[in-house]
Design a protein that fits this description.
single chain, 233 residues, alpha/beta, Rossmann fold, 8 strands, globular
Length: 233
């Protein structure tokens, strides 16, 4: 796997990172199920008859996605605003992913520009990067389009937006992500993808989905990038 990873990295000119997972656990201090419940309560206060499966949804991004699919732009904007505010609060309590920072720094030392492409709000991502002193290593930060959840990954649009901003061709980029939507979005965008299997069940899932490489720790990627840069450590 290490050899395959090294070969992959030798063929790319830029690194794209998903945020929640590869960089940090954004909802570690402000749990995602709590935020999802707050968004459901917001919909109820707006007079929405919330179906049972949505009422029990634990993923706030899925609440936003489902709200957008229902077609009421006013409700979608309200949920978007509330979620963005919650994400900004969550970013202040986020738990860094072990070796996530090292991956960013090692990529830059290897001469690879680094972008973040996230379904979280760009403001929350940027706040985290600034607080953890890595904002200067990452450009651009591509968050979700405002109140248009259909444009989130696995839609390839935000990934391609980052590729264009980096001045790279898709085949010269690699995305590191921890979800099926990352794998699907990268493949739709025509870029390489490394699956970060931070849960055991994801290893087989990502391999079946066709990830170019699968890692179980960001340290593996950091080490490969340091070798690429010529750093013996």
């Amino acid at each position: 796997m290490t050899a395959d990873l090294g070969r992959l990295l030798s063929e790319v000119g830029a690194v794209l990172l998903d945020f929640d997972g590869p960089v940090c656990s954004i909802f570690a201090g402000y749990p995602a199920p709590q935020i999802a419940a707050e968004l459901v309560d917001l919909l109820r206060r707006r007079g929405v008859n919330v179906p049972a499966d949505l009422a029990s949804e634990s993923d706030p991004l899925e609440v936003l996605r489902r709200t957008g699919a229902a077609g009421n732009h006013g409700h979608t904007r309200a949920v978007e605003d509330a979620l963005s505010a919650a994400e900004r609060q969550a970013a202040a309590k986020a738990e860094p992913t072990p070796f996530g920072r090292e991956v960013i720094v090692a990529a830059r030392q290897a001469g690879l520009p680094v972008a973040v492409v996230s379904n979280n709000s760009a403001e929350a991502v940027t706040a985290y990067l600034v607080a953890h002193r890595v904002a200067g290593y990452v450009c651009p930060v591509i968050g979700r389009a405002y109140a248009e959840p259909a444009r989130m990954k696995p839609n390839p649009e935000p990934i391609l937006k980052a590729v264009r901003a980096l001045g790279q061709s898709p085949e010269r980029c690699v995305l590191i992500g921890d979800s099926e939507s990352d794998i699907e979005g990268a493949q739709a965008a025509g870029i390489r993808v490394i699956g970060y299997a931070n849960r055991g069940y994801k290893i087989g899932l990502f391999r079946t989905a066709g990830a170019d490489a699968v890692i179980t720790s960001m340290s593996t990627l950091a080490e490969a990038l340091m070798k690429k840069s010529g750093d013996p450590t």
